[in-house]
Every structure is written in structure tokens, then in C-alpha cells.
Amino acid sequence: MDGPLFVPGAAVPAELLRQHPVCLECAQAPQIGPVSEKLWVLWKYERTSRTWREISRTRAHAWEWAIVLRPLAQRELEPPRQDEDPRDRAGAALASILAVIDSSLAQLPAAIRMNVLSELYSALAGRLARG
């Protein structure tokens, strides 16, 4: 990520806007104590409405703002994908899996159903932890 720095309140000239314009704003609060906290705001330019839309914000004393805002900025700087959105397939797969689970659970007594759901929860948590 790179780009020019602007003074507070400056307008960003249209010729400097890249293909996927994002802006990182830093606002310093009045200093209280030895270290002051800064507000970091990530913005995206919407070409159709010609406005800046806030993506996210965080407060930080030092570099830790980057942990929160960097992945969001990277996502916004990527070109839009033309292929299928993986969230669409994930939603369909989830609905199918839940239908099988619900159908299987409906055939069990309540006490066993709760035991199965508890074990299923543990198994899914383990899979999530493994990645």
C-alpha cells in the first residue's frame, strides 16, 4: 500500500484516484498522559455516488491499528472477482448439511438428540481449530 499524504481537510484530486481508491485517515485525540491514542479510519471511494464510504475504524496507541485495518484494505484493493462467489456455494452446502442433520435428529429421542448435538459441536470445533 502506498500513495500520497494529504493535510487534514484536503480534497483528494480525482486524477490521483486509482482503480480501487481507498484512504487511510489518522486523527489524533488530545494527548492525555504520556501516550495519546489515535483514531484510524479506512475509507473507500464510491465512484457512482462520488462519495467516500467508511469501511472500518479502530483506535490505537501505536502500530496495532494495522492488524485490524490491513486485511480490510487489502480486500478493497483487490479487483472484483468475476467468478462465482464462494459464499454462495458455502450457503448451499450448509443448507444441505443442515437438512441431513435435521432429518437424522428428528428420528432420535430428545435425550439422545442432545447428546448427538453436543458431540457434533465438539467435532466441528475440532475441525475449525485444525483449519
Please characterize this protein's 3D structure:
- It is a single chain.
- The chain has helices at residues 65-77, 86-106, 110-130; strands at residues 22-28, 38-46, 51-60.
- The protein has two domains: 14-77, no CATH class; 86-130, no CATH class.
- The chain has three helices and three strands; from the N terminus they run E-E-E-H-H-H.
- The protein is α+β, with helices and mostly antiparallel strands and 131 residues long.
- A hairpin with a 4-residue loop joins strand 2 and strand 3.
Précis, in short:
This protein is of the alpha+beta class and 131 residues long.
Low-confidence stretches: none
Question: What is the 3D form?
Answer: elongated
Mean pLDDT: 85
Can you write the helix and strand succession as a string? EEEHHH
N-end to C-end Cα span: 28 Å
Helix and strand content put the structural class at alpha+beta
- Rg result: 23 Å
What is the count of β-strands?
3
State which percent range the strand residues make up. Answer: 15-25%
Secondary structure blueprint with pairings:
Elements: E1 22-28, E2 38-46, E3 51-60, H1 65-77, H2 86-106, H3 110-130
Antiparallel strand pairs: 1-2, 2-3
Describe this protein with a few key phrases.
131 residues, alpha+beta, 3 strands, 3-stranded antiparallel beta sheet, 20% strand, 2 domains
